[in-house]
Amino acid sequence: MDPHRACRRRLTADQGIHFVTTLPAPAPERDWSELPVDALSSVFAKLGAIEILMGAGLVCRSWLHAAGMPELWCSVDMASHKLVQVLDKDSLLAMAKVAVDRSGGQLEVFAGKRFVNDDLLKYISERASSLKRLGLISCKDVSNGGLARAITKFPLLDEFELSLCSNVYERHVFETVGKSCPKLTRFRRSENRVHRYGHSTHYKDKEAMGIATMAELRSLHLFGNSLTNARLTAILDSCPLLESLDIRHCFNVKMDGTLRAKFAGLKTLRLPDDSIDDYEFLDQLPSWSLYIIDLVSDDDDDFGN
């Protein structure tokens, strides 16, 4: 018997049994605009910034109100969503600024891919002094000067990823990160440049010396960097709290007794020739060659972007 049908038995004069079925009344239509704010907040918390900005927060007035609550915008991830690859940069920049405004100064995590530029970094730095995690991926419109100026406004920064951002490379930028972010414990930098075996350019050596100023690091990821043993040793000596080191595709690092001794205190170590199966940018690997013209001269170290 269908459990959703109400049935009752009726006896007739000749004791025959008949069944009379009564269908339940249709359920009233639900008014989604009347959902309590805490329920809406729970739903929005499971969505990303892009989903909320592109529609979920525009359903009705109550949803728009809930979508503007600052606590929903403490973390803004605009790097992992597939729409980041197809939306134009101007739209993404506008959406990012709305997200920063809605955070009401409570933004703690921001990640952007492809579209972030110096202007947006400046905008964030003026409104998010509590930022703890920053991720910039494939942001070619971020310059040495733009990043150096913005990073001074993030004294609480704990994690920083700077990957595939080809226009950031000067020593003073990384020194500024080290000096301005004394709480920084995790730094990730992946590159897809063309490198020369057995040769570390002047600016790459200076970049390594800049990284060495990040004295509180517990985790360092340098993928596809041309630094040498000497510069890696300088980093290890300057970062005594380091527990995890990833130097895959850093083929100018050659294992010797000195490095083995310094690696002894690490909990996690990935060496230049280790597997890259779990590397997230497999379609943008760096290239290594025996002969290469250095595209950035030593004189460019004071480039004033």
From TrEMBL:
Signal peptide: none annotated. This is F-box domain-containing protein. It comes from the Eukaryota. Residues 32-77 form the F-box domain. PANTHER family: F-BOX DOMAIN CONTAINING PROTEIN, EXPRESSED, OS08G0194350 PROTEIN. InterPro entries: F-box-like_dom_sf, F-box_dom, LRR_dom_sf. Transmembrane segments: none annotated.
